[in-house]
Design goal:
This protein is mainly beta. 5% of the residues lie in helices and 43% in strands. Strands 1, 2, 4 and 7 form a 4-stranded mixed sheet that branches. Strands 3-6-5 form a 3-stranded antiparallel sheet, with no helix packed on it. It is elongated, with a radius of gyration of 24 Å.
Length: 299
């Protein structure tokens, strides 16, 4: 077939904007037919293409000929090149292959070098009693996962390595979610997954980092109500665990073994603690551990 694929493309003007680059846009890539099992085509060097891990008639093939054929392809991208390999057969194909993909394009060579290649990192999801769970991630970070996450391609947790659990991972700005698709129930493993991360530098006008971040203790004390807030510096950004318990961020010396759980939230000049295991207050002199970032500009 003359392979053509569909992907997402982002075109930035003078400045690289976070919103445009993270979302990208869909576009099609024409591959064409091939006598061999693999064929490669050139693409712009400042364009990053993202495809499904396996391209079939139902998810990314958009060529008008041989629409109902069951040919499957593995699409791979490297700087300036995209390749298609047929995986359901060792031979070639006759269709004029055209595929749909997501494209991220940058005019700045310096930005393209950093963002296009991305880097691999792991994301800790943990266990879940329900069928799905979401975790917060940085808002200026774009995560790319396989369409189906299994033990063989992206699961990297050390427990239950041979379990056949399968997950669908989805990303949206500031959030990544995992849903179990081989069962309607939850899972017990401490799920950790490997993905590709594309992070954009913040504009200079937004903020200049003065510090790489340091650990800081924030004292809240007790509260008769369910929520309490404390003032902090307006040029300070605190990053705390979404759920604070005795095992991850509570460091007060009294009531160490209490099971009180808190949701910590930051806004400019203020940090708040809300008790989530009860509607009441608490007696402990609450002190928590967070990461502190001082910014030279506005937060």
């Amino acid at each position: 077939m003359r392979l053509k694929v569909k992907c997402m493309a982002t075109y930035n003007k003078t400045k690289v904007t976070k919103k445009k680059v993270l979302k990208g846009k869909y576009r099609t890539v024409y591959i064409g037919g091939s006598r061999g099992n693999t064929i490669c085509k050139r693409v712009p060097k400042n364009e990053r293409l993202v495809f499904p891990s396996v391209c079939t008639k139902s998810n990314c093939r958009v060529n008008s000929d041989y629409r109902n054929s069951n040919d499957k392809f593995r699409l791979t991208w490297s700087v300036g090149k995209v390749c298609a390999k047929r995986t359901d057969s060792n031979g070639g194909w006759g269709m004029r292959l055209k595929v749909k993909c997501r494209s991220f394009t940058y005019r700045s060579k310096a930005a393209a070098k950093k963002v296009l290649k991305g880097k691999y990192r792991t994301v800790y999801i943990g266990g879940s009693r329900g069928n799905s769970i979401c975790k917060r991630v940085s808002k200026n970070e774009r995560l790319v996962f396989p369409s189906v996450c299994t033990k063989s391609n992206c699961r990297v947790n050390s427990d239950y390595r041979n379990a056949n659990d399968k997950f669908r991972l989805t990303w949206s700005v500031g959030k990544v979610c995992a849903k179990r698709i081989d069962s309607n129930g939850g899972w017990g493993m401490r799920l950790k997954v490997k993905c590709r991360s594309f992070t954009l530098n913040r504009p200079k006008a937004a903020a200049k980092k003065v510090s790489k971040g340091i650990r800081k203790l924030v004292y809240f004390g007790g509260s008769r109500g369910n929520t309490i807030c404390k003032k902090i510096s307006k040029s300070e950004r605190l990053s705390c665990p979404s759920t604070c318990t005795k095992s991850n961020c509570r460091v007060n010396s009294d009531y160490r073994n209490a099971n009180d759980r808190f949701r910590l939230s930051w806004s400019r000049g203020r940090v708040c603690a809300k008790r989530i295991d009860s509607n009441g207050g608490w007696g402990m002199r609450l002190k928590v551990k967070c990461m502190s970032y001082f910014l030279g500009g506005k937060v």
